[in-house]
Every structure is written in C-alpha cells, then in structure tokens.
Amino acid sequence: MPIPKKTGFSRLTSSINNSWTGIVNAVFTEDAFRQLLVINIVLLIITFCLNITKIERLLLIICCFITLAVELINTAIETVVDRISLEIHPLSKRAKDLGGAAQLVTVVMTVIVWLVVLF
Question: How far is it, in rounded angstroms, from Cα 78 to Cα 96?
C-alpha cells in the first residue's frame, strides 16, 4: 500500500522545510558549497556597489545563484553514487566527473559574465 502524499499547503511547507534542511546540511558538511557560498555572498554585495544597469546586475546575481544550485546538484549526485557503493566503478567515476564538469561550466560562465559586465 503506497504512503499517502501530502497535498496543498502542507505539501508546500514540507517541501520548503526539506529544501531548507538540504541547504543547512550542505553548509555544515560540504566544504565546496561553503566556499562557493562565501564567494557568492561577496559577489552579491559587490553587485550592489557597482554602477551598472539593472539587467547587468540581474545577470551577475543569476550567475551567483546558478553556481550554488549546480553545486547542490553535484553534491546530490555524489551522495547517491556513494550511497550505492563506495567501490570504485567506471560509471560511478563518470557520474561524479560529469557533476563536477557541470559545476566547472557554471563557474566559467560566471567568470565570463562578470568580465563582460565589468569590462
């Protein structure tokens, strides 16, 4: 017999609570997420000190949030792979490498967007 799912406002509050738990967990257990969080907080503060258009500011802010989101997804992939097995396997390595590649792409994108906006 399937477990009944929450609906309506209860589902929304439960989902937000679970998401917040994930963020708190990442802050306390993941060095890479903490480092990106600090860097992105600094970058967010800088965006409001720059004399740029609202669209440029929005692009810089979006980049900051995307890098954090992709790091959370990358961490989730690594966690699931490790849950399945700590044994070294080519597919496990591939999954982890692809998650890391996604993060690298977002970091490169962020650097490029910042350079284009600033220069």
Answer: 6
Q: Cα dist. 119→40, 64, 94, 112 in Å? A: 20, 18, 37, 10
Confidence band of 67 (pLDDT split at 50, 70, 90): very high
* The one-letter amino acid at 94: R
71 is catalytic: yes
Query: What's the confidence (pLDDT) of residue 4?
Result: 80
Predicted model pTM: 0.88
- Alpha-helix runs per DSSP H in 1-119: 8-29, 31-47, 54-84, 90-118
- Residue identified by tokens 């996604």 is 102
Task: Spot the catalytic one: 56, 71, 78, 87.
Answer: 71
